[in-house]
Amino acid sequence: MLITRKMLPLLLLCCILVLAAGCTDHEQLKQDLLQAAAKQKQVQSYRFSGQANLDPSLFQGAQPMTAAMLALFKESTIQYEGMVSLPEPVRMEATFTLTPKGAVSPIVLPVLLKDNKMYLHLPAISPTDEYIMLPLENA
């Protein structure tokens, strides 16, 4: 069988992967994973970010008024980022950026969760620096 120049890099990569898998110290890897899991209990705060695309099937069977409101966001992209502080009192700050399909400018929604309350700023309703407060009490 003739090895062509196109196959040589692939063959070399496969050899390196086989050698790396054979030379791995699995006991050390297990110890590292256990230490990482133990450190998760010591985490005091963390940051998060991501993106989501809304699935049109979410809107099926909704009430007519709700479906009309949500139709604006049917093919939207949501980007979010924020920070969580875990020591009591737990606090979360996040910013959601909603970009409807074909929109020129996105809708930015800052959210704060603190003391069992959610503070939300709706740019279309709330004046600048004014938040709507929603209680988050257990029923």
Task: Sketch the major β-sheet.
Answer: 6 strands, antiparallel
- Count of helical stretches: 3
Average pLDDT taken over every residue: 78
Total DSSP E strands: 6
Low-confidence stretches: none
Q: Give the percentage of residues in beta strands.
A: 25-35%
SSE series: HHEHEEEEE
Distance between the termini: 72 Å
Can you list the strand order of the major beta sheet? Answer: 1-2-3-4-5-6
For the CA atoms, what is the radius of gyration?
24 Å
C-alpha geometry: extended
Helicity, in percent? 25-40%
Category by helix and strand content = alpha+beta
Describe this protein's structure.
With 139 residues, this protein is α+β, with helices and mostly antiparallel strands. Helix content is 27%, strand content 31%. It has 3 helices and 6 strands, in the order ααβαβββββ. It has helices at residues 7-22, 26-39, 64-70; strands spanning 45-53, 77-85, 91-99, 107-114, 117-120, 132-135. Strands 1-2-3-4-5-6 form a 6-stranded antiparallel β-sheet, with no helix packed on it. Strand 4 and strand 5 (117-120) form a beta hairpin. It is extended. The N and C termini lie far apart (72 Å).
Write the layout of secondary structure elements.
Elements: H1 7-22, H2 26-39, E1 45-53, H3 64-70, E2 77-85, E3 91-99, E4 107-114, E5 117-120, E6 132-135
Antiparallel strand pairs: 1-2, 2-3, 3-4, 4-5, 5-6
Keywords:
extended, 139 residues, 6-stranded antiparallel beta sheet, 27% helix, alpha+beta
